[in-house]
Amino acid sequence: MTQDPLVIFTPSGKRGRVAAGTNVLAAARALGVDLDSVCGGRGICSKCQVSPSFGEFAKHGVTVLPGALSDWNAVEARYHEKRGLKPGRRLGCQAQILGDMVIDVPAESQVHRQVVRKDAAVRAMTMDPATRLYYVEVAEPDMHEPSGDFERLCTALSAQWEIGAVSARPSLLRRLQPVLRKGGWAVTVALFADHNGGPAEILEIWPGLHEAGLYGLAIDLGSTTIAAHLCDLDTGEVKGSAGIMNPQIRFGEDLMSRVSYVMMNPGGDVEMTHAVRDALNDLAIEIARDAAIDPGLIVETVVVCNPVMHHLLLGFDPVELGQAPFALVTSSALTLPAAELDLSAINPRAKTYILPCIAGHVGADAAAVSLSEEPEKSEDLVLIVDVGTNAELLLGNTTQVLACSSPTGPAFEGAQISSGQRAAPGAIERVEIDPVTKVPRFRVIGSDLWSDDPGFAAATAASGITGICGSGIIEAVAEMRIAGLLDASGLIGSADQTGTLLSEPEGRTHSYLLYDASAEGGPRISVTQGDIRAIQLAKSALYAGARLLMDEIGVDHVDRVVLAGAFGAHISPKHAMVLGMIPDVALDRVTSAGNAAGTGARIALCSRAARARVEAGVRQITKVETAIAPRFQEHFVAANAIPHASDPFAHLRAVVPLPEVSFNTGGDGGRGGRRRRRKA
Ligand code: FES
Question: Which atom of ligand 1 is nearest to the CA of 49?
Answer without folding.
Answer: 2
